[in-house]
Automatic annotation (TrEMBL), chains A, B:
Listed GO MF terms: aspartate kinase activity; ATP binding
Organism: Carnobacterium maltaromaticum (Carnobacterium piscicola)
Keyword terms of this UniProt record: Amino-acid biosynthesis, ATP-binding, Diaminopimelate biosynthesis, Kinase, Lysine biosynthesis, Nucleotide-binding, Transferase
UniProt-listed SUPFAM superfamilies: ACT-like, Carbamate kinase-like
Reaction equation(s) it catalyzes: L-aspartate + ATP = 4-phospho-L-aspartate + ADP
Name of the featured protein: Aspartokinase
Length: 450, 450
């Protein structure tokens, strides 16, 4: 039994919905279908979710919402027309949006969340209508009906444990079950949406709840690539990677989807298959808790920029019990979260995302580290890119570091810092942002071309 | 003006003292001479300091001290005889030891410290007698007279700031000034000894206090070597290294002297020259605050074993603000000090010295990390050796990491972890203890043989 999730671009038009229908129909084990709101049909297009946010925001400040409301309805109407679905479903959607506009504005975050959720919700109804019209028995199931309960945090809802038990009962339902992604209900019956990657999260929760054999995540690329295709030409497709590898790659810039969305599936031990709605015969990428060992140590290389380093030097630092802890405490109290802390004997480097820093915060930090901790030298460096070389099999392959550092050195790229914990699932190199693309290309060539 | 310090093996016999005299005599700028107690004359010999500790301990529990007392006096007597110094100095030493034995036992740590200090103190008197007899004007100066005040911590005394000002006045003294190493006086007039490397500490304090141009530290090796001569055959001698490099090398097993002993000289910006009493024309090794850039990126390679790693894995760890700080806090409360913390996205490795761990402590730690911090996996690994590749010029030499990791990989040595902060003064590799010597040899050959 499979859970299938379709993203916004897979559901942006009637043409796309026809592909989705074929995909669901051709495999009878595809029982649970989680859907997004209609996405972009072209680069210049707008996502329905963005239109809904705009509409809700305007309504909250009592601006005229009529033009944007018409735009939203036109998107559904255009799909219904392409699929020859008749006007009933559009009347229903129109009715729903009118009710939302007239809703309770005293709690703006819930007002907004109800709007956001309607994108997925109305699309799920439309898709159920279409599937049934095509002769495939399908039921739209509202998350409240499914018992998909979440915490009371609009825009950042967390699933409640009982949701999994409730969802399991959906297995009994006849035919295809169509569930809108992106939101659940609080115990008091309010809609609360998930964070980024919301429909992916719903799919993963449903996959865990119904104890699916596979969670198929349909998007608009054939696979996850071994390196960013915008930098490296025709990078290799990754056939299989583990959750851990996926996490490490996602961290440094792989944006096929938000990796944390997979957490519920990961917890349930359910494999995820990334597939392309526009090319469903392509194998795609499978993400599994574990995978067989291969002789390819590295599965992918990612990079991300916008990092800074705080270098702290103090003579006899390593004899001072609690020094590192105190540094981290100062950062925490200043609201700064950090990524890595490579160290020498008398020095410690803290790597963190630059967007957290301001000139004022930096000055405060330098003064705190010097005055409170007695650091001799504190310097802050910006424009650092982190290169992540990722692969579970690095553990068993002597020579990966040698290959990687040789590739960088041959290309005259200075390694500012290196970090490799004993998990050996990734190696991190800090380089100057100016060297980022050159470094990615050099590393890709070292590990993926012969 | 120079401060010259001689270690125990340089002062173990009359023959050695003659060398010392020649060294001091031939350079009129060698004004301040800091001396240790007589050390070993051969591998099987005993150090006077060890005999004194034994004597004090026996005396404290009212055992017969006569045999050991005679042994101690015999050591000085043998030197005096070799140098034909007459019996007066030996009578004085005997008198001093008898007084020590009759001393106040109510504070055993001070009783012990007074004994320990007498090794250096009596030797200084003997040496002053000898120098004067040879026609070199020399005065024995007691640390109390010199104003070398320290904290009230027997066996771990710290110099008080005013000591430096007091010592500066010694510049006015005529002739050579001979100061016993290893101890100072508390403000209430009690003797308090330094920790390990005590005479080196006195030398560094005096060098700082008198604002010496150079601190010459005479020992029994020609130089500091680029790698451990017990493992690597005929390793290169290091001509010049910086304090920072010295620190990094000392940390991982270089034992020419205890590097922290140099701190007072380091603070005063005074260069240190390591020289060999038995081969004074050898250039030796100079330790300076900074040095000229060379095209040799690596100055030395050290290794040290007896480390363990605690591997902690938790899904979404890097989103959890305060996780690292909490880990370090748990370690701190358990009284564990750590060395490095390389990390991945969802994992953190803590490297620490194994001798701090017991089966019970490990079990407690694993349970704390799992229960209090919700770690998914916690594993502890023992028998790790840390290899330190050290050199300030690595900063400017692209390719050092590549060279080092290639050397390890070619020799089939798996790198368990890597750590290189942005100081780039050292690179740390964690390897299995079984690979330690092989790794040291491989790294030495990569950087020092052509």
């Amino acid at each position: 039994m499979k859970v299938v999730k379709f993203g916004g671009s897979s559901l942006a038009s009637g043409v796309q919905l026809k592909k989705v229908f074929q995909i669901v129909k051709e495999d009878p084990t595809r029982k649970f279908v989680v859907v997004s709101a209609p996405g972009k049909r072209s680069k210049a297009d707008e996502k329905v979710t963005d239109l809904l946010i705009d509409c809700a925001t305007k309504s909250l400040i009592n601006e005229d919402v009529q033009p944007i409301l018409e735009k939203i309805i036109a998107r559904y109407a255009s799909i219904a027309e392409e699929l020859d679905l008749g006007s009933e479903i559009i009347t229903e959607i129109k009715q729903n949006l009118t009710e939302l506009i007239a809703g309770d504005k005293t709690q703006p975050e819930y007002y907004l969340d109800a709007f956001k959720a309607s994108g997925e919700n109305n699309n799920a109804k439309l898709i159920a209508t279409y599937f049934n019209r095509e002769g495939l028995k399908a039921s739209y199931v509202n998350p409240l009906e499914a018992g998909l309960f979440v915490t009371d945090e609009p825009g950042n809802a967390q699933v409640l444990p009982e949701a999994y038990t409730n969802l399991y009962n959906l297995r009994e339902k006849d035919g295809i079950v169509i569930i809108p992604g992106f939101f659940g209900y609080t115990k008091s019956g309010k809609i609360s949406t998930f964070s980024r990657g919301g429909s992916d999260i719903t799919g993963a929760i449903v996959a865990n709840g119904v104890k699916a054999d596979l969670y198929e995540n349909f998007t608009d690329v054939d696979a996850i690539y071994a390196a960013n295709p915008n930098v490296v030409k025709d990078p290799a497709e990754i056939v299989n990677l583990t959750y851990k590898e996926m996490r490490e790659l996602s961290y440094a810039g792989f944006s096929v989807f938000h990796d944390e969305a997979l957490y519920p599936a990961f917890r349930g031990g359910i494999p995820v298959q990334i597939k392309n709605t526009n090319n469903p015969t392509a194998e795609g990428t499978r993400i599994t808790p574990e995978r067989k060992q291969t002789n390819q140590a590295v599965v992918g290389i990612a990079s991300s920029n916008g990092f800074s380093s705080i270098y702290i030097e103090k003579y006899l630092m390593n004899r001072e019990i609690g020094f590192g802890r105190k540094v981290l405490e100062i950062l925490e109290l200043d609201g700064l979260s950090y990524e890595h802390t490579p160290s020498g004997i008398d020095d410690l480097t803290v790597i963190l995302r630059s967007d957290q820093l301001t000139k004022e915060k930096e000055a405060k930090l330098v003064s705190q580290l010097k005055n409170e901790l007695g650091a001799d030298i504190v310097t802050i460096q910006h424009h650092i890119a982190l290169m992540m070389v990722v692969g579970e099999d690095m553990r068993c392959n002597i020579g990966t570091m040698s290959k990687a550092s040789e590739a960088l050195s041959k290309n005259n790229i200075n390694i500012e810092m290196i970090n490799q914990g004993s998990s050996e699932v990734s190696m991190m190199f800090g380089v100057s942002e100016a060297d980022e693309e050159k470094a990615l290309t050099a590393l890709y060539e070292a590990f993926f071309t012969k």
